[in-house]
Specification:
about 180 residues; mainly alpha; Ferritin; about 90% helix; elongated
């Protein structure tokens, strides 16, 4: 009987150890992904002024300027997340964002200055960025909940909502004016 009890205790310890390793692995993945989106947001703060300067439509220019202010807030929130995790603020290069920003720069190079066609291209590029951010923040918000960090999930959820709002605004600008103006060029 003592052998059976000892065996059950050992099995329980293995399960607990495995659960702790699982949690540790998830936390490491979560932290790595926070570093990735932090780099992405910092990189975006450099790209948005270029997009604003390249835009023709006043509405699009304003949207890029406002989103820069929002992105700076997103960076601050991520720094708060690092603090809550007890981690040093650190960026890890985000290849996806680097590629998306390069696409936006190519649109600027490949379209005529002062045209609605360029604005259409800028909206497409910006929405690709927003969709990447929505995917990242949506996943990170859920993962924060999974690892028991509701405090962090709330912070990331605010940013997720703002990214969705920006995407909707870009769609409205395209549908209301920019796409029609481009067809008239």
């Amino acid at each position: 009987m003592a052998t059976t009890t000892k065996k059950k205790q050992q099995e329980k310890e293995v399960v607990l150890q495995t659960r702790e390793e699982f949690q540790s692995a998830l936390l490491n993945l979560f932290t790595d992904e926070i570093k990735d989106i932090y780099w992405a947001e910092k990189h975006l703060t450099q790209a948005l002024p270029k997009m604003e300067n390249a835009a023709t439509s006043d509405g699009l220019k304003e949207a890029f300027a406002n989103h820069l202010k929002q992105t700076l807030l997103h960076v601050e929130r991520l720094e708060q997340v690092f603090e809550l995790l007890g981690e040093k603020v650190q960026a890890r290069k985000c290849d996806a964002m680097e590629g998306l920003v390069q696409e936006g720069e190519s649109i600027i190079e490949d379209t005529a200055k002062g045209t609605a066609t360029r604005d259409v291209g800028l909206i497409i590029a910006a929405q690709k960025v927003e969709h990447y951010e929505i995917a990242a923040y949506g996943s990170l918000t859920q993962l924060a909940k999974t690892i028991g960090r509701e405090d962090i999930a709330v912070i990331l959820g605010k940013t997720l909502s703002e990214e969705k709002e920006t995407d909707a605004l870009l769609t409205a600008i395209a549908e209301d004016t920019v796409n029609y103006n481009a067809t008239a060029e």
